[in-house]
Structures are given as C-alpha cells and as structure tokens.
Amino acid sequence: MSSPPHRSLAWIDGELEDLERTGLRRRSITRLSGQGPAIIVDDGSHDHVELINFGSNDYLSLADDSRLLDAARAAADCDGWGAGASPLVTGRSGAHARLEHVLHEFMGVEAALVFPTGFAANSGTVAALVGRGDVVLADRKNHASLIDGCRLSRADVQIYPHSDMTQLIAMLGAAAGYRRRLIVTDSLFSMDGDFAPLAELVEIADRHDAMLMIDEAHAVGVFGENGRGVAEQLGIEDRVPIRVGTLSKALGSAGGFVAGSQSLIDWLLNRARSYVFSTADPPAVAGAATAALEIVGEEPWRRTELLSRAALLREEIRRQGWNIGAAASQIIPIYLGEPHLTMRLAAELRRRELFVPGIRPPSVPDGESLLRISLTYGHTPRMLEHLIKTLGELR
User: Fold this and answer.
1) 46: burial class by Cβ within 10 Å (0-12, 13-18, 19+)?
2) Which of 61, 145, 163, 190 is catalytic?
3) 369 - beta bridge partners?
4) Coil, strand, or helix at residue 286?
5) 249 included as an active-site residue
6) pLDDT in tens, 178-216
7) Does the annotation mark 218 as catalytic?
C-alpha cells in the first residue's frame, strides 16, 4: 500500500506533469537477461520481450564474458565481497592493487588510481586540481561528470562552443591572470560520437601553459593500436598529462580510473574527495576489470572489427538520409530535435524488436534530442541488416 507524499513534497507531482507534457519524463525498464547484443526486458507492463540491444556501452561485448565472471569469482574467493572501507583505510585489496598495476602498464604511464565510478573519477579529479582563483575551460558537450566536477571545484568555469578552438584560444588569452588554467574535454563525445580536436588542444594547452584533462571513457579499449584511446591513436599520449577512463564500458566491469604521473596520482590520492571518502568497489569488480584489460591486449580484433562494422553502418544510415552529424565512431546519433518525435520513433523501433534509446534533455542540449545507436562487437550481420532495413522503412 502506497502512502501519499508528505506535504513538503507536494510540488513534485506538478513538476512530473511538466516533464510528461514536454516529453522529458523518464521511466525505468528492467533487464531480465545478461548484458549482450540481445536482451530480455520488462518495462513494468509485465510483457517480457527480447530485443536487439543497441543501447549498451559494452562495446567489446565483455560484460557477460565467462573469463570476467571467473576472475570476479576468484577475487571474491580471495578477498571477500564488500571492500568494507575507503581505499585509504582498509578498502584497497590485493585485487585493487593488481588492477592499478595492470592499468598503469596498459596506459603506458607511471601510475594509475581506481575510483568507484567513472563519474567519481572525473568529478573528483577536476575538483582536486583547481579551486578558487583558478579557471576551468570546458567543452559545451562534456559529460555531466566533468560538468559537476567543474561546479564542485569552486573555480571560475567558462564554456567554449563544441570543439571551437578559435573561441578557446580567445578565452585562454583573457584568462592569463588566473593562478591555474585547466582545459577539460571528452576525447570521444558520448552522445554525438565525434572526437575532440585533441591534436590542436595539446598545442593550445602548451602554448598557454594550461593543464589538459581528457576523458577517454568511450574510447578506452576501442581506439589506438593497443586500445588506450584517442590520444594513443593520434600519437599524443605524452602531451596529455591527465587521462581519465572507465572500466564500465568497453571493459565490461565497473569503476573509473585516472592515469598519469606518479605525482598526479599521489595528489589525487590525498585530495580527490570522491576517492578519499568513498568505499572502494568490491574486489571482485577489480578482478573482472583486470581480466578485461588482458583480453583487450590479447584480442585486438574485437576493436578492429567493431570499428569496421561501425563505418559501414554509418554509411548506410547516412545514405538513407538520416542526420548523424559528425559521428565517426561506434556511437551513431540520429538527430531528430524534438523529444516527442524521438520517443515515438524509439517506441516504434521497439515494436520491431530493436532497442534504440531515445536521448532527450538534459542528456543533450535543448533541440538536439536523438536516437543513440551504440554498436558492439557482438552484433551480428543479421542484427545490423534488421536495423538498417527498419530505419529505411521508418525514413
């Protein structure tokens, strides 16, 4: 039996009605199967349906890989389940230490630090690097974790138009009086599937004596000769002092990390509040992530085949006349603009056994609602053909 909301919360019903009217109200769905290219879901209607899953960030199809499950079991058998405390108290297990060692070798840096989530890694790192008297210059389409880190830092925050280097240079010129200057950007933007101009950004940061922090969350495991991300692909890793990644997307596990110099990691260990004051992830999570990193090194064809299929899919969708902007990755947006239209098309795709999530504000700016196609290694040619055929019919 449900109880009515407390009178102090009576305003919520009206706000929810506004979200409904504008097409922005979200409702949860429940996945009743393992994460994979096909999933069984229940959205609350008790109608269990199997859908081809184009909504997952499990780009290398490792989330349900038996090797990760075996590694998680082994870590749990050795170190137990819950970490019990923050890493600086008693929460850092042998599994966490091994993961950080493997990460720093994988990323080709002096050290790495594991956070409980990618959100915690981004927000905690920004706030540890700058504060009052400093300035952060951030891309307009940065992930929410970077945006919140900027707000928490208490530094002045200046937003430059998406990938607009001319405007960034002008803003840096006007910011010469600040104590520290930090540029923050995604390397691969999670909704648009396009890349930050990193080659230009490293030049600009050097010229203006600014720190550069990039979030490789959607690129680690997928881009670069060794899967280290866009900075590796462009050959500029040694010019990016602060690199953030996640263990929850292509690596199929959970958590986030920062990779860089030993002094950077030592500073974050002491000053990143989201690290210092968070209980560590269970050791089993670290064990699974370590196994995923080994697979990335041993099976490079996962990323090469994924990117090859993504290029073909982008070509087909563009040929049909859909607007996918500057997408150049495994993330393919179909820009529709209006939330109600976006959700109607998402519902129609679901009726045709395709799960393609509709993305609306605040996940994207007003007027930029879109369908987000997320391609994974596990998608078969038949699945892609069904998607292409259905999109052609809806077009």
Assistant:
1) exposed
2) 190
3) 337
4) helix
5) yes
6) 999 999 999 999 999 999 999 999 999 999 999 999 999
7) yes
Q: State the CB neighbour count (10 A cutoff) for residue 33.
A: 14
Active-site residue, from 96, 249, 369, 379: 249
Q: Which residues contact 131 (CB under 8 A, 6 or more apart)?
A: 153, 154, 155
Q: Give pLDDT tens digits for 299-331.
A: 999 999 999 999 999 999 999 999 999 999 999
Pairing verdict, β 211-215 and 181-186: parallel
Q: Which listed residue (218, 248, 363, 379) is catalytic?
A: 218
Tell me if residue 104 is catalytic: no
- Spell 152-175 as b/e; 16+ CB within 10 A means b: bbebebbbbebbeeebbbebbeeb
**How crowded is residue 342: how many other Cβ atoms within 10 Å of its Cβ?**
24
Supply the pTM of this predicted model.
0.94
Distances (CA, A) of 268 to 122, 221, 236: 11, 24, 23
User: How many helices, marked H, and strands, marked E, lie in the chain?
Assistant: 14, 14
